[in-house]
Each structure stands twice: as structure tokens, then as C-alpha cells.
Amino acid sequence: QVRLVESGGDSVQTGGSLRLSCAASGKLVNSYSRGWFRQAPGKERKGVAVVDADGNSDYAEYAKGRFSISRDNSDNTKNALYLNMTDLKPEDPGEYFCAASSRNIAAWMIIHRPDAYVYWGQGTQVTVSS
Q1: Residue 124: Cβ-neighbour burial (10 angstroms; 0-12, 13-18, 19+)
Q2: Per residue in 66-90, pLDDT tens?
């Protein structure tokens, strides 16, 4: 079983930066693809960034050049996944969710496929004010 716990959500001003973290339990999680999704109120959940177990990443168009996803498998107690967000815009707010598949799938194949993920965190809230 895999458990995901996000942290780092906050309220920032337009143009600001945030770093989201996702700690994962479960000894096989390092072999899974992992991603970040976001959901605005009343909207569907959408992919932000994904990194597969081989270290390949993919991003939604709006995230390219501003957001960066990384994973740190060096600490087995955390199996951390990060999302560094810069130049935050008024359209970026929402609940940000960490997710993991149950196997390694190429990042480009599942950036827009929330149904490909089996495990989800509870979310962390990001607010951007002008």
C-alpha cells in the first residue's frame, strides 16, 4: 500500500514562488511514475507535471518554463516528490494533488491521464493573489 502526503501549499502574490512536497510510504513507490495534478473549484482535475521512474518528465503547457518536478529516492522514509513553482499567475490557484501509478509508465503518456494513477494524496491548497 502507498500513502502520499502533500505539504507546502500557501498563499502567495502573483509572480511569487512555492515548493510543494509529497512524502510517500511504500517500498515499491520508487518504481512508479509520480505526478502532480491540480483542481480549481468546480473544475476537473488536470495534470501539471509527471516524472517516471526513469527520471523522464513532462509538463502541461502552462507549466513549461515555470514549474519543475523532481523526485528524491535517496531517503526511503520519504521517497519525496517535489514541485517547484515560479512566476505564479492568477490562473494557478487550486488544490494540488500528488499521485502515483502502480507501475512505471512513460511520463508523456500520463500527463493528462488522472485515471492512470492509483494512489492520491489529500491535496495542498495554493492561493495566488494580485
Answers
A1: buried
A2: 999 999 878 777 789 999 999 999 9
